[in-house]
Amino acid sequence: MGEAAKTVIFEIERRNTPEGVPYWEKFELPYRMNMNVISALMEIRRNPVNMEGQKTTPVAWDMNCLEEVCGACSMVINGYARQSCTALVDQLEQPIRLQPMKKFPVIRDLIIDRSSMFDTLKRLKAWIPIDGTHDLGEGPRMPERKRQWAYELSKCMTCGVCLEACPNVNDKSDYIGAAPISQVRLMNAHPTGAMNKDERLNLLMGPGGIQECGMAQNCVEVCPKGIPLTTSISSMNRDTTVQMFRNFFGSDNMVE
């Protein structure tokens, strides 16, 4: 008798509708070398039959770039929030348990709605407000030392993993989380973006802002891009404190 073919077992938390009751379903797939979680989900979609041999609905999940750049395929894998495109089966303990991130509304199965995070970025003006109507020529140059750390902040892909890991982001708090705070730091560091610096800092001091951070430091531990999120939070703590005194004394000439 030949050796039995190697298989991989997945346990997936499923939900048919946003208001639906979650339930678990198991799938067993043939093992392939260098298999990642996304390729396993694709196989289940191709042939949606569970371990009991019953035909079921294909599992729903999000994906886009498949190279850890877009952040769309974030989910909880064996208890840890991460990207499923870079989660290799060989490095995961079986059965591999897949769940949607719980800090965002679940739409169906592993698909979540990250609109709240995007709305926060809009509210904080996390962009450089140049309308592009006129050719303004080359913008001001950023000093090389500042450019280097600013580039690290620009790697954020709004995957939501830092919010999922943060104990202060929950249904009893309006805390916006580390990613938007770090983006305020990035935009305020830009020579052109700095013209909206005060507005961003004032918004950051508002409801759900930086004062809600408990410095658990989970965010920097789980960030897939290695962004120094706690450094950004500390920097913005300083800047918002200075801004608070500016507001109180009504002075634009305080020494920073």
TrEMBL record:
Superkingdom, taxonomy of origin: Bacteria
Residues annotated as domain 4Fe-4S ferredoxin-type: 147-175
Enzyme class name: oxidoreductase
Cited Pfam families: Fer2_3, Fer4_8
Cofactor(s) required for function per UniProt: [2Fe-2S] cluster; [3Fe-4S] cluster; [4Fe-4S] cluster
Record key words, sorted: 2Fe-2S, 3Fe-4S, 4Fe-4S, Iron, Iron-sulfur, Metal-binding, Oxidoreductase, Tricarboxylic acid cycle
Entry's EC annotation: 1.3.5.1
Gene3D superfamilies (alphabetical): 3.10.20.30, Alpha-helical ferredoxin
PANTHER family named in the record: SUCCINATE DEHYDROGENASE [UBIQUINONE] IRON-SULFUR SUBUNIT, MITOCHONDRIAL, SUCCINATE DEHYDROGENASE IRON-SULFUR PROTEIN
NCBIfam families, sorted: dhsB, PRK08640.1
Family: Belongs to the succinate dehydrogenase/fumarate reductase iron-sulfur protein family.
UniProt name for this protein: succinate dehydrogenase
